């Protein structure tokens, strides 16, 4: 069983928060400190908790939508969160709203 290294991830996170963001563009692949994640989510590797990511959408010089890359194929949807992150249900949107949102997300790709 892999033991989580939250202590070192928290130390690195504090350093990363003080960094200036690099210049990046859509379609680029970058090493990214994704961290020591919760439960069954994919973790970064090595002392910098790194994984490769593909920049899908650049919103501004500080924020982007990126997808982690992997050498292993996932049987199910590769975009997942561990349910341990959830803290309380806020509500539910209508089917019509949900379809519009899903359609908008597909347009990003």
Sequence-ordered SSE layout with sheet pairings:
Blueprint: H1 6-17, E1 29-33, E2 50-58, E3 64-68, H2 95-108
Describe, in plain words, how this protein is organized in 3D.
By secondary structure, the chain is α+β, with helices and mostly antiparallel strands. The protein has one domain. 24% of the residues lie in helices and 17% in strands. It has 2 helices and 3 strands, in the order αβββα. The chain has a 3-stranded antiparallel beta sheet, with no helix packed on it. A hairpin with a 5-residue loop joins strand 2 and strand 3.
Distance between the termini: 37 Å
Low-confidence stretches: none
C-alpha Rg (nearest Å): 16 Å
Strand content: 15-25%
Q: How many strands appear in the DSSP assignment?
A: 3
Arithmetic mean of pLDDT: 82
The number of domains is: 1
N-to-C SSE series? HEEEH
- The global form is globular
Structural class: alpha+beta
Question: In terms of quaternary structure, what is this?
Answer: single chain
Widest sheet, order of strands? 1-2-3
Largest sheet composition: 3 strands, antiparallel
Portion in helices: 10-25%
Number of helices: 2
